[in-house]
Structure formats: structure tokens, C-alpha cells
Amino acid sequence: MSFGMKTFYNGVSFSRSDIPLLDNDTFFQGILDATAHDWRVCTYFGVPSASGATLYCVMASKSSGSLAIVATQVGRSFPSLTEACPQLHLFEREIAEQCLVRPEGHPWFKPVRFQKPLCDGQGFWSADDGAGLLPGVMDFYRVEGDEVHEVAVGPVHAGIIEPGHFRFQCHGEEVFHLEIALGFQHRGIERALIGAPSVRTMHLMETIAGDTTIGHGQAYCMNMESLGNIFAPPRAEAVRGIALELERLANHTGDLGAIAGDVGYLPTASFCGRIRGDFLNMTAMLCGSRFGRGLLRPGGIAYDCDTEIAENMLQRLQTARKELTQAISLLWITPSVMARLENTGMLNEPVAREIGLVGPAARACDLNQDVRRDHPFGIYRMSQIPVITAASGDVYARALVRWLEMERSLDFIEEQLQQLPRGGGQINRPLGVAAGKCAVALTEGWRGEICHVALTDDQGCFERYKVTDPSFHNWTGLALALRDQQISDFPLCNKSFNLSYCGFDL
Amino acid sequence: MLRAILARCRQGHRTMAYPKAPQSLPPRFRGLPHLDAARCDKACRVCAESCPYGALSANGTLSLDMGKCLFCGECSDVCGHEAISFTTDACLASRTREGLTVTSGEVYRPATALGQELLRLYGRSLKLREVSAGGCNACEADTNVLSTIGWDLGRFGIQFVASPRHADGLFVTGPVSENMRLALLDTYAAIPEPRLVIVAGACAINGGPFKDHSEVHNGADGLIPVDLYVPGCPPSPLTILDGLLRLLNHISWHDK
Fold first, then answer.
1. Which ipTM did the prediction report?
2. Which candidate, B71, B239, B216, places its Cα nearest to that of B136?
3. What is the pTM of this model?
4. Does A131 touch chain B (CB under 8 A)?
5. CA B250, CA A494: separation in Å to the nearest integer?
6. pLDDT of residue A407
């Protein structure tokens, strides 16, 4: 399955001239062949050119542990592969919106973020007078019939959460179809990254999705380090790993509490709400910020984990583990909770594979994939972390996978704290950025695979910096999980995925 | 059932005492900046030049606009004269935009209470509608935390409600993306008067990390009248709580 693609390992950079520029037929057929076998698409994006765009596709193969990249040049249109390869469907829409090239034959050709294109010109969905579209205003899929009704929710929701618009096609309580329109959080991050890096770049990376500061920050640091041809010191990698697992623990704890709250089981909801804060405070102990702001920087870490902090954290972890185990185990022994979690929001393995699901949501559908093991980076090259899967693909499976992952994360952090490598945490010399290079970094954030691709120009500035949050893969999964479900189960299904709006909207 | 009761006993009562007793923050927390221009080399502007968002000015004296500050600590790292440090004081909110500026040699005065009439209306019951307008989910998450048992915002009569029609005020996070501008203004208009507006986080005050992107509006300030500014990226839950309590006169301005 090579069709001339450039293969490499996670976290490296190579000359852009090494990226095979294939003719259209080889490129598109090659992607179809590869995804029919062992390869998954990590990201698929365009760089606008005068006559159209250059398309880049980054794929990952679990069996070989390698990544691959291929490119092709297209004019004002290119053939859509979505019907044969559904995991591309949002990527193709994104390419159309950003680069103004049309995926011919796309079955679901609609805006993604209601954003301005990255090049000059008028978008496909702009009004005739040239005005941009209003966010959320598009042709939604509709089910017709006297007994069918439509429920519209958002962008402003009832709780303190980010905005998005949801359209349910319902028959009574039953949901036939859910369509999700996002883009309300669009802040122009990818546009701002053209011409970077600058002093602001790290701050943008940390706020792509604020609850995934470490996950995205780590990917950016990996790219900057490979472009600068340096390695972060071992101690820095260990502390980054600790921070990444703390981030996972905090978010999984919060979500399991929220799931308990959504089924009306208040003990676990209130315990977890507090314990989540304990994990955030451990991150704050490391770097002053509960979300890990300022901890990571290209070349290492800005705050060291000294002996005092390590010992304090070990103690806190022990308490948190005890209290958390108690809080979560109540879920599994309470029949009224289990009755709501089991068989709700089902996704099966073939569908999950087809739409390219990632992270705990994928592992809950029995897809055994995790960047930390399959494409190890940083500390995970030295210390393995077991991958957890479950088979049933329902809310219960997603909750269970998250809990079992948390136990592994706790083990991992405890182990790392007891064997922190000696030495400094930061390389103290200015970081250069190599010109004409391509760098690719994958990390496993708490929602799943994060992919950053940097393409530098001949000055060492980003000609394009592509960010793919796990939510970009997974929102479709939530929409499909809602089919044939009660509309009242939407909050529960939603929490079990807890996807990022701003990570998607960029 | 018994296990749940047992767990409840073991988990114990965990609501913090604040504001009756101080709430401790980790030593590395970056709160109220301490500026000491007397230590400066007057020709040196390295701190001001290091700030990615222009929060710091060093023209003879030192002043820092917390509305622009992400509390990244870069300025204190590069200062060779120990003129800038960040304390663990989290009482940062202000009633005015200018009030967010910290100047060397001057005592920072956090937010004052509402006027008598508004205090009569909202002093014991304040319902807020939150709108995230381009927020990265950090401000949102640390606002949500206030409703958990550790912080228990409800004990002060403050609650986040599901509809603007039930609300006395608007709580805004995020730089106000163009794609959320209309929804934000509609939500504001749907709240009955008199209504309060609280903006939390560097984004909602001034655009934060996304300042001057053409896709955002550099915050809610200027789009709607603001009654309370809560700085930080994101603000600590303690900063938000402290600001709300000062607004409602539970803490007076000289209490620290």
C-alpha cells in the first residue's frame, strides 16, 4: 500500500521536496486503497495556490507504527472520495471552505465553520451580494411527514458550555436524525498561524482548546523541536507526560461526574465535580495554572517538578485515587444508573472505523488504537501505557473506557514521579526553524488523536500550520449515536463524547 | 443505597470557607502583579518588549494592564532587576476597564459594590446567563466549577440559569467571535432591565490571545456596557468568586 508515499515516524521533520507530489489519479486512488487496508486519515488539508490548491494527506498505520504523507495539485475542483471513504467528508468540506476548490460529487456539501477562506475570493456559500453567510444558516437535512417535527437547539445552550447548533428530526421522542452546525467559536487560528511562529504562537496553541492545553501544546513543541533539530531533555518529557495524564484525569473525572448528573445520580456528580478540581490543582502546583498554561515551551518545560512537588503530588494522587474509586464505583453498582447508560447512544465498530473515530470514543467501539502506543512520542517512547477498549459502543462503554484509562493514568503518573530523570528541563538556546520543511506531530489528548502539521517556507515561517483536533473526527460519531434514541438522552450521549467546539472551530 | 450513604460520609463536607477565611493558592500561581519601578534600569524596556500583547508599559514608571495580560509571566522571567513579580493575590476584578491597570507604587483596589438600588434588587439573589462567545472552554470550565460543592456559589444567592428571561445579568467569556456576535447581542437584549454585564477572562475584556484577529471583536467591551471585569487567562475560580462577592457587597473593597 505504498503508492509512492513518504513514510516517517511521529514527531519528525523532513524536507518538503521529499513529499511526493503525485498526479491526481494516483493520489486519489492511493488514498482509497490505503484507507481500505491498514491506514487511517489523520488529516487532509489544502494550501491555496494561484490556480487552485495543493492537497496534502497525512495517514497513519498502526501495524507499521508509521505515518505517511502525499500531495497533489488540483485546479478549481477535485473528485470527492467521501462516498467511498466517509472519514474524509468533513476534510473535503473544510478544503472547499478554506481553499475555494470544490469536491465534485460530495454528498453533503455544506459549510464547516462559516469562515472566510484562506485566500482571496468568494466562498461557495456566500450570498450573491458577496456577503458572508450567517453562522448556522444552511440547508439542514429534513425528514418530511405529518408526524415528524424538528427541534432546534443553540447556539446558546442552557448550561455553561460553548455554542453550537443542533437540529433534531424527531418522531415523538425518537430522533431520526441529528445534524450539528458549528463554527460559532471560529477565531481564525489557522489564518493567524500563517507567517508564524511569533511570540504569540504558543499562546494560540494553548487556547486552541483550553481544556487540552497540554495536548495541543505538546504537539506544537514536538514540531518546533523537530524543525529546530533539538530534543527536549528527558526530564522535560517526563513532566510533559505527567501533565498530559493529569489533563486526561481532570477531564475524564469531570465528564463521568457530568454523566452521573445527567442521569440524576447526584452523589457521583458532586464528588467528581470536586475531585476534578483536585487534578486541576495538581497541574497548578506544577506551573501555577490549573490548565497547564505556560508549562510547556519548545525545547522543554518552563517549570520544574522538584522533589517537594513530586512528593506532595504523590500524596495528593493517593487520596484522589481513593476518593475517585469510591465515587465512580457507585455508578456500576446502581441499577438505575446502569439502566440509563447501557444500550444508549450506540455506535458499532464498522461505523466507527468508517467515519474515522478517534480516542476513547473509538476505543469504546472496540477499535484498539492509541497514539501513545501506536505512534509513541515523548515519554511514551520509554514508558508504555496499556490501551483500554470496550466492545459495546454505548454510553456505558465510553464511561467505562474513560474510568479504566484514568486508573492507568494514575499508575503512570505515580511511576513517573518516582523516577524523574535528573538534569534540567529546558534547553537554553534559541530555537531556529528550518526552512522548506514539513513537520508532523501526533499526540493522544484526552479526547483522542491531535495532529499538527507544519509546512515552512524558505524563510523558516509557516506557510501553513494545520491543526486537527480529535473533535473534528468525532462530531459525526455523536450525530450518528443519536439515531433511534430518545431526544431526552441527548445530554447524556453528548457528555459521553464531550467534544470540543473551539477545537473544531479553530 | 448504603454504599452511597457510606461514600457520602467518607467524602465529608468540602465547601470552602471563603470569604470568611482566606483560600490558599499554589505558590506558583500568578495573581496580582507586583511592580517596583525603583528597581528598574530606566533605559531598559525589555519587559515591555517581551509582552506579546502589549500589556506592560515601562515609560519611566511601570504599569501593567491586567485586561490584556495572560499572566504568562514572561515579563518577570526576562526582567534582570527583579522589578516585576506575580503574587498569589487573586482579588483582581474591577468595576472599570481603566481600573484593571496596576501601577508601580500604587495600591491596587479591586471592585467596588453596586449602588444602593441595584444592591437592593440583586444583593441577595443574582441570576446570571452565561454566553461563551469564542471562549476556549477554560474560562467556561472554571466558571462551571463555582457551582460544584467545593465552591457552592448558591450559598451567596448567585446562580447560573438556563434562560436569559430568568436572568438578572449576562456573564460573557470569549473574545466575541464574529460568528457569535449576533447571538450575544440577542441574549443581552432578552434579559429584562436593569441588567448587569460581567466579562470574565482576557478574551472577553480585550480579545486575549486572539486580539486583533479579524474574526473576533476584541471582547464584549464596546459591544455592551460592562459592570464587572474579571481578568485572567483563565481567571482563577477564586478571582471570579471574589469579584462577584465584591459586586454584591459581601466583601468590601479594602478587605484582602
1. 0.94
2. B216
3. 0.95
4. no
5. 37
6. 96
